[in-house]
Amino acid sequence: MLKLNEFRDRAHKNGVKLGHWDALYNDNVEASFVLMFLEVDAMYILFSKESLVTSASNNIQDNFKHRLAELIIRTLDLCGELNIDVDKIMKKCTIEILTTDPFANARTMMQKILVLHDLITFAVTDDTGSRSDNDNSMYDSESIVRILIATLELARYSNIDMKKYLKNVIEYKEKEE
């Protein structure tokens, strides 16, 4: 099983190193959600192109894979900042979340991407459920982890080995100065 807490720690350490969390706490959390929305919007634009329907361009597939990884990294970085134990929540929610296909009613890739957008919106606005171990957090841990679960599911649907790709992207980002 993919141990996301390890990736969370590495993504957050890199986010801190790059200064993502230097300003005021709430502004940065909100900015993190905005960047997550931008990744999903970029995916939506990729799949709204008619060329994708008619051909499986490697460039588009690579871009899509990179956007999925960026969304996961941004979400993991946020989990690190909010002190969310991703692996613990995923285990806790296995029956409720993992056995429920988040894309059950989404027939097209664009609809699946819109589900991700809705999950981010819900995480921003949800004021119920479990909080992170950080008592100051106003965000629901399970709602944020659902974004990760759905993104990993979308990668699986797209036949992308996200564990391997994510490891490579994080290693590359760790080397950035």
Descriptive key words:
about 180 residues, mainly alpha, 9 helices, globular
Secondary-structure topology with pairs:
Layout: H1 4-17, H2 25-48, H3 50-54, H4 58-81, H5 86-92, H6 94-98, H7 109-125, H8 141-157, H9 162-175
Helix pairs in contact: 1-4, 1-9, 2-4, 2-7, 4-8, 4-9, 7-8
Distance between the termini: 31 Å
Residues in helix, %: over 70%
Structural class: mainly alpha
The main pleated sheet reads as:
none
Note the run of SSEs as H and E. Answer: HHHHHHHHH
Q: What does the average pLDDT come to? A: 80
Broad shape? globular
Helix tally?
9
Describe this structure in words.
By secondary structure, the chain is an all-alpha fold. It has one domain (4-175). It is built from nine helices and no strands. Helix 2 (25-48) packs antiparallel against helix 4 (58-81), helix 2 (25-48) runs antiparallel to helix 7 (109-125) and helix 4 (58-81) crosses helix 9 (162-175). The relative contact order is 0.17. Residues 132-136 have low confidence and may be disordered.
